[in-house]
Give the backbone structure.
Amino acid sequence: MDNRPIGVFDSGLGGLTAVKELLTIMPQESIIYFGDTGRVPYGTRGRETIIKYTKQDISFLESNNVKIIVAACNTVSSVADGIGDNLSLPFTGVLNPTAQAAAAATKNKRVGVIGTTATIRSGSYRRGLAATDPEIKGFDRDCPLFVPLVENGWISEDEEVTRLVAQRYLTPLKDAGIDTLIMGCTHYPIIQHIISEVMGSGVTLIDSGKETASYCAGVLAARGLLSDRKADGDCSFYVSDQVEGFSRIAGIFLGKDIKREVSHVNIDLY
């Protein structure tokens, strides 16, 4: 047993959907979350910049004595793949667990991927799907407007602007005849109801945060690192920009109000 916290980071607040899933699967665990809100989005940055930011994010979490680090950011997992290989503690991104889940779900071997521009440009999910099942044909599309729409709270089922944007992005994937769609950004599950309606009931949606949380639980169990105490969803939140307004947006991602104080971190010190 190991009662140290799980460390989770993301370029912003989207990774909180992964935190929600982690707490659903392992309510006894405590979590330290870092959102790099001062430098969001990573999805429009170059590879070297993303790697630099990722190393700093990891260093901050290591300084808090976490037992595993989860990169709840599809951009990091896609562009900085392998960055956790030399760490002294377990590390996982979202790419491999998500690709494996999609490969297991598809029936017609036609899988779509939506994500940030950097994630799609990297081709990481296409490679991950091909490595899992060479017969799978991947179709991808970057959806850069989804993140600001979510973070500005344009998420209701009757939000016309978000629905129109979704139709514009997703119609080519629907026309391609995919039966499985990877939501390759942890923001996207917030508007899953809109994405699902546009794609239709015949398309299975794969939530990268949910699949990663399940994988993380398996790693901790296999290594004997699960907590044996009742943490009751104990989370500590850190951001690199102003803390004002965090609680409102975090409530959208977590599905509940947060009661813990949010702390500011000067990430350039790491």
